[in-house]
Task: structure prediction
Amino acid sequence: MKELLFALADLWMMFAGFYCGWKFLRRYSNYLLGLEWIIVATSGTNFLVWSLLGGDEGSFLYSVAYFFDAFSRSVGITLILVMGLMRVTRRYKPSLAVDIGVFAVAVAAGLFLQQFRADRLHVGPATFYVVVNILTTLFLAYFSWRLWKIGATGLAVAAGLATAAGTAIALTYDFFPFPDDAHRTVFYILALGTWGTQLFVYFRSYRALHEHNVRTGVEPASAQRSASAV
Result:
């Protein structure tokens, strides 16, 4: 049953990442969020394949999984997420050079940090992950407030709850492992389900703020089709 729940949670995250990532690219030309969502979904795909093939820690897929994990925990679902959401909160649209540069930083961080495996607690990297997550949470609290302010109260609550759950997962990840969970199956059921929900809720929230900005004239409607058709 736990293995089935793990697979379902991973499939949910993969769906949310690929589907919403494609929507970010196609409807909003938001390459920061679109590519990061797709990277998270690709990470989930690699993780599921590795698990189905036996979960060998000596496998190349295991190293790939750690790279993706470090990529998103350090820069992807922190700096890239904030910069991408600022499109609808602050009308910030980075240049192509900035887009490329921030992903290059994420790749470098992923390559460096993936060496710190879960065989033991690495206090420095683990603390870094928690600190950047908390800083991101502060922005996401502001993001939720913006949703509340425009009357999207349901999405504001959903974004707030998803963010709180994501922060709890971040704190638990390295410092508070579950007892009697040797292979971390229970943890990953909760983590993958939470991450997938975050991807989906943040996409819906972005769409609500975008449509509000268009209605109020803050942002031009542009030639893109209405996101309400999603």
Summary: Residues 185-215 form the longest helix (31 residues). The mean pLDDT is 90. The CA atoms of residues 144 and 159 lie 6 Å apart. DSSP finds seven helices and no strands in the chain.
